[in-house]
C-alpha cells in the first residue's frame, strides 16, 4: 500500500465511530473531494463503506459563509 492510501486508511480508522453513527465524511483533496459513509449491505446485513470520489470542475474564491450569508 502506498503512503497516501495508508494515510487515508488511518484517517478512516480514526473516524470509525462517526461513520458507525451514520455521519457522512467529506474530505477536501488537492483536486477534488472524497465522500465516505456507511450503509447496510442488503445481502449480508452488515454495514459497508461507500466511497465517492469527485474531481473538481472549477474553483471559486468563496467560503461556505459567503454562500450562506443570509442563513448564518
Overview of the molecule:
With 72 residues, this protein is an alpha+beta fold. The protein has one domain. The chain has 3 helices and 3 strands, in the order H-H-E-E-E-H. It has helices spanning 3-14, 16-20, 64-67, and strands at residues 25-28, 32-40, 47-55. It has a 3-stranded antiparallel sheet. Strand 2 (32-40) and strand 3 form a beta hairpin. The radius of gyration is 15 Å and the shape is extended. Keywords: Plasmid.
List keywords for this structure.
3 strands; alpha+beta; 72 residues; 31% strand; plasmid
Q: Structural class of the secondary structure composition? A: alpha+beta
In the predicted model, the low-confidence regions spanning at least 5 consecutive residues are none
Strand content bin: 25-35%
Structurally, the number of domains stands at: 1
Instruction: Give the C-alpha Rg.
Output: 15 Å
Order of helices and strands: HHEEEH
Q: What is the typical, i.e. mean, pLDDT?
A: 92
Main β-sheet: number of strands, strand sense, barrel status? Answer: 3 strands, antiparallel
Number of helices: 3
State the helicity in percent bands.
25-40%
Order of strands, main sheet, comes to 1-2-3
Oligomer: single chain
Q: Tell me how many strands there are.
A: 3
Amino acid at each position: 500500500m502506498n503512503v497516501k492510501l495508508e494515510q487515508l486508511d488511518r484517517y478512516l480508522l480514526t473516524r470509525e465511530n462517526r461513520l458507525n453513527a451514520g455521519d457522512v465524511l467529506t474530505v477536501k483533496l488537492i483536486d477534488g473531494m472524497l465522500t465516505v459513509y456507511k450503509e447496510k449491505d442488503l445481502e449480508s446485513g452488515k454495514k459497508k463503506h461507500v466511497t465517492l470520489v469527485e474531481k473538481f470542475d472549477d474553483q471559486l474564491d468563496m467560503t461556505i459563509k459567503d454562500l450562506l450569508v443570509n442563513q448564518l
